[in-house]
Structures are given as structure tokens and as C-alpha cells.
Amino acid sequence: MERLIDNENNVQIDPGKGRIVKRTTGPGPGREEFTLEPMDFEKDISLGLDIPFSENSGKIFSLNYLSIDQAVTNVKNLILTLKGERVMHPNFGTNIRRYLFEPNTPELRNNIGNEIEEAIKFWLPYIRIANLDVIVPKAPAGSQAFVDRLHGVSVELTIGLINNTLDERTIVLEIKAD
After folding, report:
1. What is the pTM of this model?
2. Can you list the domains of the chain with their CATH numbers?
3. What percent of the chain has pLDDT over 70?
4. Sign of the alpha-carbon dihedral angle for 7, 10, 11, 12
């Protein structure tokens, strides 16, 4: 099979099946842009690893087979990664840990929410945020989840995929000093 190259030196995947997009002022009609279908229906192809890595069953890695499940893992990874922690991507992540010992005010919770929204919009643009609440946590009855409720926040985040309006998942992260 002969490789087809367009006027912008891009290899065409399947000529005639994409949508023509003109992105430059150069000569020619533009290049074809392809939208790949999600691999959710391929039962033997995993999309990535789930976190946490170890399970109670003894397996080292559990795998994600649905796009929405992998999106949840990606969001957790993004939120819990400290900026500067990832090699070659110093801006990947959030600075939520730096807020940990600040006074727990509405302004602080608003700043945390804004930081999460900005990180998701930049690093995970395929994710739609349906709801984001940063609240002072409440310990369930009979539980000591937060001994000092003023030093910690609970992030409740409902996400979906931009091209999938049916599936949504809610993530609850408790960020506290242990």
C-alpha cells in the first residue's frame, strides 16, 4: 500500500473518509481530519490501567475497558499529581496540596475548584464537567473520617465525555492531612 501524503506533509490514514480542514494559508484544499471511534465495544482491548494499582484479589493491575472509566482514572491522576512532579511536564497536575494547611474559607474552596477546572480544560479537553463541588467535609455518623473538619476539603466532581452524553461518573476525593 502506497503512503499518501497531503500538502502539509501529513500521512493520510484513509483517504476520502475524513473531513477536509483548511488550517493553513498555503496552497491546496487542506488536510483530512479523522474522528476515531471509541474502543468501548472491543472487549479484548483495554484503554489503560485503573488506580489504585493493586487489588484485594491479588492482581497487580486492573484494566479499564470503557472510555468513561479511563476518564475517571485520568482525572484522579491529574488532580492528585503535584505540579512539577511529572518529568518533562512540569505544568501537569494541580497545586491542591499547597492549599492543605490554609484557612478553610469559601475563597479557598473556590480557588481549589477553579484550579481543578483549569487543569481539566487544558490537559483533558475531552472531559465535560457536569458538577464540581468543593465542600467542608462532614464525617458520617459514628465515623472519625475527619478529626478536624477545618483541615481538609472534599471534592465531589461529576464528569462525562464530550462525545458521550449518556455516561457520567461522580468522583469524591477527600483531601486531608493524615
Report:
1. 0.69
2. 1-36 (no CATH), 48-176 (3.10.450.40)
3. 63
4. negative
